[in-house]
Structure formats: C-alpha cells, structure tokens
User: Fold this.
Amino acid sequence: MVTQEQFCENCGAANVPTARFCQVCGIELPFKHTTGKLPDNTMLKGRYQLEKRIGQGGMGAVYKAADTLFDNRPVAIKEMSRAGLSPALVTEAEEAFEREARLLAGLLHPNLPRIYDHFAEDERSYLIMDFIKGQTIEEYLEKSATRPLALEQVLDWGEQLCDVLSYLHNQQPPIIFRDLKPSNVMIDESGHIFLIDFGIARIFKPGQSHDTVALGSPGYAAPEQYGKSQSTPRSDIYSLGALLHCLLTGDDPSEQPFFFRPASQRNQAVPAELETLLGQMLEMDAEKRPASAHDVVKVLRHVDQQRISGILSTTVTSNPVLRVASKSQQQMQDAYKLYLQRRFEEAVSVYERAVKTDGFNAQAWQGLGLTQAQRGEHSKALASFERTLQLDPKLITSWNGKGAALNMLQRNQEALVAFDQALLLEPNNALAWNGKGAAQHALGQPTQALSSFDLALHFDTHLTQAWMNKGLVLRQLRRYDEALYAFDQALSQDRTSTECWNNKGITLYEMGQLQGALQAHQQATKLDPKYALAWYGIGNVLYAQHKFNSALDAYERATGINPRYLRAWDRRGTVLGDLGRLPEALNAYNKALSIDPNFAPSWYGKGNVLSQLSQYEEALDAYDRVTRLNPYSPLAWNGMGNVFSHLGDHAHALDAYQQALRIEPRMVSALHNKSIVLRNLNRNEEALAAADEAIRWAPNDPDNWQRKAEALRKLRRRREAKDAEKEAQRLMNGGV
Assistant:
C-alpha cells in the first residue's frame, strides 16, 4: 500500500527500486530499507498486533494488523523509520508523515481510507488506517490477461477517481495528491476504488511560483512537478490522464515520460471524444488542461452514456467492424440525439426502425427500452429490455431498466430479482442498489431499503435519486431530521428537482414547520407551474393555517392540472364543506369516487355532507361503504351513530357509538354522543358515566360538562347538576 520507488535524498524525485543513480539530478542513491523488519505478532501501542507485512517502499512499510481493542478489527499500519537519515531529512520525513496523518484525519470520502490513530514508538512513526482487502491497479495489471483494459472498466475507475480528486481539490485550501499512479490506487473485491498513500500530497499555497522539491513518479508526474513551477489541481489532471492512457493502451508512461501516442493507435475501442480529452489532460502547458476533475468526469460520463446506448464514434475508420456504416447504427445515433433532446416520441420511432433493420442488435433494443421508459410506457419498455437480455444477458443497463419497469408496474418481487442480477454482474453498481432499495421499500422492507440506498450512495455520492429515495423511507419512519438532510443532499446535487423540493415540503409539513413547507412547495411550482403534487402540498399547508379560500384555490390548481388527482378532489370536498358550500363539496367527493369507488375517505366526507343536507338515508349508505372498506374507522362509526340519532333510532345509534369506542376508547365526540343517546333511552347512570369519561379526556370542553349536568338532572341530583352547569358556563366564558 505504499510506493515501490526509492526517493532521491537530494532532489526528492522518485526512482525505481533498483536504480543506482537519480534519473533527475544524477546523484548516487545509497538508500537501504530500514523499515519492514518487525516480526509477525509484534504488539504496537499495546493494542495493534501485526499479522504480516503487505508492502515495502522507499520511506516505509505497511503491515496488516488486528486492533485488539475492537474485536480484532483488521487495520493497515504504515511504518516510517528515521534510521539512516540526516537530521534535516529526519525532520522532513517526520513532517511528511505527520502531514499525511493530519490530511487523512480531516477527510471523509468513500474513495479514501479512514485514519484511526497515529503515534511514534522506538524511533518509528505509525499511521493506523482502514485495511482494504483487494489489490492495487498495478497488481491487477500484472495479473490481468487482458491488455488493454475494457473501455467500460476504465470509464468506471476514471469516474471514481475524478470524484475523489474533485473532493480533494475543493478543500480549503485545495489538496493536491501529486502521485496518482497504478500502485497508489486500490481496488477492493467489489471493484470500488480507494486512493492511497498521501505521503507526498501537499496543500496548494496560492502565490507560490514553484514546488520546493520535485516529487511524483516518472511518467505520471506533470512537468511542473519537477521544480519548475507550482503544482496545482491540473497537475493531478495530468497524472489521471497518464493513468487512463496506460489502462486504455497498455503503454507504461515511465518508459518514455511526456510522450503519449494517440490512444486509438493501440486500442481501436477508444472513441474520438475520449481521445480528445486525453490529449487535453496530457498537455505540457498546465493552462491548456481541463480546469477541474469535474470537467473531466462530465466527458467520461457522456462517453459512458454513449457506450451504453451503442453509438460511440471511434477514431479509426479503416476497421470495417468499428466504422459507423450500417444503417441500424446510423439510426441508433439519430435516435440517441433525439433522446438527448427529450424528443422521446420521435426517438422511439427511430429506435423501432433500427430494430427492424437489425433485430439482433441488443444496443438498439436497449435504447428503445430506455426511451419507452421515459415516455412512461413501462410494459413496452419491459418487453424491450427482456429482448435485449435475450441477445446479451450481460448488459447491466438493461437489467436495471427491467427492474425499474417492473417496479413501475408494481411487480416489485420480480424487480428485486432483476436488480440482484445486475449486482451479480457489477457489485458496485449504484443504480442497481438504488433500484433494489426502491423495490424493497415497495415491499414494505424499510430497513433493508435504507441499507441498499446507503450502498448506492457509497458507490456514488452524487446519485440524486438515491438521496431522495432514502429521504422518502426516513420520512415514512418519521425520522424527519434525517429525511430533511437526505432531501437537502439531493438538492445540493440538483436544485431544479421539483420532486425533491416537494418531498422536502411534505417532510416539513409533517414536522409542523408550515412556513418552511410552504416555501419548499412554492419553489417546486416555480420550477414547474404544472406540478400538481406541489399545488396539493400548498393546499395542505394553507388549510392547516385555516386559510380555507387560498387552500381551495391551490387544490383547484392541482385538479386543473391533473383532473384525475384523487386526493386533491377529496381535499376540495373537505374545504368546500368547511366553507358551507355543501352541494359543491358533494360534487367534489363524487368526482373523487368516480376515479376510485373504493376510496374510503371520500365516502366518509360524502356521508358528512349528506348528513348536513339532511339526506340521512344516503348518508347512512355512504358511512356503510366506509365501514365495509375499513371496519376500523371510528370516524365512520361515529358519523353513522349521528345519522341514526337524527332518525330517532337510538338503539342503532348506541351500537354505532360503542363500535367507534371499541376501536378508539378516547374518542371524545363518540363519548359525548353516547351520553346523549343513553339519556334519550333513559339509561341515565350510563349517560353520566359516558359524560364523565368524555370530561376525563377533554376537561375543558363545556359541552361535556353540559351532558353531565343533563344526566344529573335526570337522576334528580340537582346540586351536582348545578355545579356541572356552572363549570360549563365558566368554560364557555373563557375559563373565567
């Protein structure tokens, strides 16, 4: 896990371990290893037990060890020895080691190892960090039978490295890694990348004209790292370009530093856009390189999307296999351009022509499925993805597409199988983990869903959909603060996401933070004035603020945008009922029930309106529908009791109230009504008991005291009745 070079004591340049003279300044290299000599089972600091040495470099060694204070947790221990160094070099080496400890301690990123401890012992310094089970890219290349590497793999690694470099470069002040090369990049067993060995990383100092010491590895180090000028984030861009070029071509840049032949000459799969990017990254003049890792990753992701869609344009036209000449492939390019312009209907038409031209073109079927999914044609998309996978069962994008289509069709268990298949092919595929989490959420498995979303974000911290899905599950679990954080993380990636703003508004509403909720929903409508869900959310907030007319306007906007928005029609009915506009409320509930005849809340609302209109028989039918749909609705049973009471059927009214109270014993309105009906049945002791129970749960409601007074008068307990009447009057006067 450390560099394999020896570093010149005179100029600091890296040299191969067998070199006798420095290739930069020419001085003799007398270096001899003084680290890596600790025997197995050595105990450091009384807690870290060494298991074996796993790396040896010019300035240190690395051991695998067990942390005995934490259940023998595996850790990596980096060792630096001062033996054989001049006093000046001891100071410099200690400072470099201490710098690495401070750097790592302050950083938190999924592509960086975590640091746990650092200390000095027996003239050596030690750094304790994550043990990464895997291999370096250098070791991977030595074992790989395939050279150069597949484009898909290189793009994936490149995107991960851009992500971590962007994180480092955006620290204040920026951190320049300065030694990006195959031996300093680890790959774990899932294919996840870790940037290791910060021994020569440095904090960029604005205004400094050049580096004080030439550091970096020959072939990968930028020209300015040889002491001629100040290294900047663009220095790491150069090193990344050299690494990507090496992976794509198999050429070792250390054999001929600063010379890079066009990548397509060694690998015909390298597309023109990627070759152009590599040329820019490897410019000798730092100012001509891409300004940031973010600029690089945008191109890598665009190339990857073209690869997925099967429309890469290669630089080589002499090879008939790679030449974009077939009618089907030209159609695919045309379709993809339409797809990027969001002209999905036209794109579908062109993709359909492409699969008719060549029915065995898996990429064409995949493009068709992706476009059909964008149009909401999920059954058609599913059929296209299944055809794709018949032709090429290793296309991960189609497994993800199939899973997403199955999720949309509510075939969630099948979706889970599709996403698991994608993860068998690529365990670190963030989109597959996100899709799996969505399926688990739909299957009522919130804990498992959260784990899947966390894994998705481990592999891609910028995956907006995973942050939002995580927020949805946390909101469902009423972990509101965490949900808000997740939605804010999603919005930090995409401030234009109406869905994220709306879900943030819902969360704030459920937390009782009405003003914040209103602002979030309004932001969603600013971004998309036709976003019905946000207008519905605005209506809910305004209703909670008792701004009934404004709430009604918002619900009307929602139903105007989406005439089949069931819940918005139901809420329109509620507000209209509260405003006393009963016929309009009845129409709103009927509209909701025409959309879904089994929507119990609208049957309940309809029953309330019919009862107020004295249409008691119809009201009974409405409440009866509610209790058949949901036998455990105390509100419906209470409403039914009220209707029976109006009809003078006190026995059935009592049965209904008692049913409501069996479901919710603390339902004060049902206790209050039960007291009235019992008094009408001359069951006055029971009426008094019901009134007392109502007072127990709502002692400040004067109506409950009035019911108690009426029952006491029936029982000829006049003095107590007067006391109850006095309390009722006092409460009606504001408690005075």
Q: What stands out?
A: Residues 200-215, 315-325 have pLDDT under 50 and may be disordered.
